[in-house]
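step 3/5: co-fold with 2-OXO-4-methylpentanoic acid
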Amino acid sequence: MWKDIDISLEKTETPKPKPAVEELGFGRHFTDHMFRMDWNREQGWQQARICSYQPFEMDPAATVLHYGQAIFEGLKAYRGDNGQIYLFRPLDNLERMNRGAVRMSMPRFPVDLILQGLKALVYLDRDWIPEANGASLYLRPTMIGVDPFLGLKPADNYIFYLIMSPVGSYYAGGFSPTKIFVCRDYVRAVKGGVGEVKTAGNYAASLLAYEMANKAGYTQVLWLDACERRYVEEVGTSNIFFMLDDTLVTPPLGGSILGGITRDSVIKLARSWDIKVEERPVTIDEVLAASQDGTLKESFATGTAAVISPVGELFCDDTGYPINRGEAGPLAERLFEELQAIQYGRSEDPFKWTMRVG
Ligand code: COI
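step 4/5: write tokens
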């Protein structure tokens, strides 16, 4: 059934003006076109199309609006110095999304078809890919359940869509150290739940703690495990790393943590530089003690949107713990530079992470 789907194209007649690079910010502007495909239980996926960026009409009873059947991804397209367009590990994002679909009782989608649509969409809107270093085109594939039905069950109708936004840095400060608030009052996810899925509700549930941290002057929240509130899990919307002595340590994926693609890239890059990397449980007490006895050399968060985000301070139980004197560490800088060099096609790509478009 999947193999027979063609992607139709309907170009916009009213292209929008493009924002200047210095006005980009993150996720505020959207390109001229989007991809969309519909699913219903009898016919499966159908009507794959690229059309003008447009609102949906949705029934007020739609499943996603009440029970949150929604999954999404974030990946980026880059304009290299040579004008070539690169995607970074797009298949990893699409495969992770399909695993999330299974967990959320949503239909899997044909990865090859979506990749074909994604590449065609990026190429069609290629003039929206910003050329400035650090800027990129952020792609947001999303799937939602849309049955007009208030009984609780998996929907019988879904929309898969993909929108694109030219972006600069996720944080207004760019690659500069963030201050992180260790959250003791709320948790993000529990093993056996949906913490490893990029589903909308995880992000909604994080907002109250984020707001509290933000009001107190912190950039993000550091989440601890739900059972003992001792083990470090994630920071805000990203994975977290600590350089403890000469070992790079990050919490293991155990179901409550998102298996970040930037996380995986950092682990592989660091190992290729002969840096010892451990994916192991790490308690907040170990991290704070290391910051006091000087063995915590540096810390950074990783994610598609934020790339590498150095952590300059942890704030826990009314006490501030500076890291690397509040400055970005050398490993965070090296990883940021090397990842970007690969993503923009300036450097060798030994891991075959990039995919050319056009
Ligand atoms: C990403 O890093 O791509 C994310 O999905 C985080 C999002 C909250 C911006």
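step 5/5: annotate
The radius of gyration is 21 Å.
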